Amino acid sequence: MPKASAQIFIDALHRLEEQQDLDTIAGLYADGAEVSNPVVPHHHRGLPGARDFWQGYRSTFREIHSEFHNVLDDGKTAMLEWTSSGRANDGREFSYRGVSVLEYGEDGIRAFRAYFDPRYLGTQLTAPQSGYPETVLSDGFSS
Asked: Which strand (E) or helix (H) includes residue 82?
């Protein structure tokens, strides 16, 4: 991947969020890549794992957009500080902050790890709200 791989990732994430383009972001990953975050009970591995991870992420939200506040990229590792906000599938607004770490090489992203407080996001997505039926979100949270 070129030195600007953090920006390539950000652009692909925005395409996923805005256009539900799963292929662009999944295509950035190397064979054997690991993908994880605090709400996923196991690491997703390889290209199929990256695709499953990002499909689950996008299907959790009706609308989502991520803003990046700090991006550090040394050509091998990128750290991205972000805020994501939007609407859950039941229409509730949410916003949460975190940091993602990308490790990459010539063959693509080798590891993606996101760090955020899942309790804070879960509270926004699952807090009782009158008029909404109970549903289970794709990441395993109930509402």
From this structure: strand 77-88
To the question of domain 5-125 being in CATH 3.10.450.50, the answer is: yes
- Distance, C-alpha 139 to centroid of its chain: 11
* pTM exceeding 0.90: no
Q: In one letter, which amino acid is 67?
A: E
Q: How much is the average pLDDT of 11-16?
A: 97
Cβ atoms of 104 and 78 within 8 Å: the answer is yes
Q: How far apart, in whole angstroms, are the C-alpha atoms of residue 128 and residue 105? A: 44
- Give the integer Cα–Cα distance in Å for 125 and 23: 27
* Cα angle value 20/125/123 (rounded, 5°): 140
CA distance 135 to 132: 9
